[in-house]
Design goal:
By secondary structure, this protein is an alpha/beta fold. The chain is built from eleven helices and ten strands.
Amino acid sequence: MSGAVLALPLLESLGQVTPSRKVPTRMAHFYVPIGVVRRGFFPGEQNDVIPKGNLGNLMTSLGKQDPVFSVKPLEHLTPTLEPLEEFKSRITLITGMDRTFQNGTDVHAQCACCYLSSAAPYSIKRSAWPLDRTLDHIVADAMENKTPFPTLEISCNTHKDNKESIYFDNISWYGTGHVAPSIRHPKKLYRRLFSTSENRRFKDVTSLVLEDAKSMQSQLSYDDQQKFGEYFDSIRTIEVQMDRLQNMKSELDKVTLEEPSDAYLPRGEFIRLMADLMVVAMQTGLTNVATFMVGPERWDTPYMFDGLFDKPRSHHGMSHNQTQMIDDLLKVDRFHMEQFAYLMRKMDAIQETNGRTLLDNTILTYGSGLGDGSTHQYNDLPIIMAGNGGGQFKTGQHVNMPEGTPLANLWLTQARSMGLKMDRFADSTGELNAIKV
């Protein structure tokens, strides 16, 4: 195999799956920077004109959801959430989740690096940041199903300008001051997952594996043959996409100017390719826990959002000019939601041996560390849970938590659903029972 290692999906015909072997629950976090435009994301905040005497609309105009706890069916999706229409019954919108800001550090850096640790302000004495070991690593530590990669950290930010510190650009941390470095390019991620050598020349791994796999075909049932074919089709698709990106970069290398940033490659295609690789890693059992950072916080180097604008734009810069750029910001929010919908669609197309899809067997969370990028508010964070963790969570709901509910309550709920026996996570006060079956 020339040093290449490619994992296979679990196949019943080969005795890889037995009744006693449980399909693992996976956990993945899809992080979006800079918060969202509230009127496009949150139900009830679309109105610009606030009628006199309407306290409910006045409250939402101040950037707050209703402070009273409520659970209701998720019926009408807001403009930003519309790309999830086909999965409306498979998601839960959670509003009212808060974090507390620790004064003395940058608001953007803290919202990113502390998102999955949610440590209480001033609880970490050896750091200026309320940053502790993050949820993904705590869960991976305790999981019984050991995988080649206990956690997988992915970032779609390839900028190398080093303007901002690591705290703006990483949500996964081994502990205070110890970042879990993200993989930031499709080829590097591919080689990390499927190659024994980082330095060898890129090869067509699929063709090599298929040649050896032909002898296996006669042993497979019809269903497993279908699964086998679908799996390698997905690998081939990824390789074609990677070749396309590499060819584009090769053409750029011929220009007698400084090499443009990878950000000028098609943005949506880049994000989707990284998502494809994450899905394959979870499908094949290379990892059960992953973090996926769509972009960095407050990184002013512009991105070319393909199909949205005719020139590169800074998401952070637009967020601080929301009055004039509201329409453009809404396009960016919807663009990010379309990528999340793509990831859900990809995961839902993969059938697993327990009769559920990969999406069903995963706790997939869309979220941001800011409720609103222009006001830097840490309350009312935009949170969506997709999948149901193997049947552990209710879906098709809008759960509005009482004002002041810590985000750590959600992390505690997710950690316990992944099998952890813990009384508390960071500044949690209890589980979110409304989302549990």
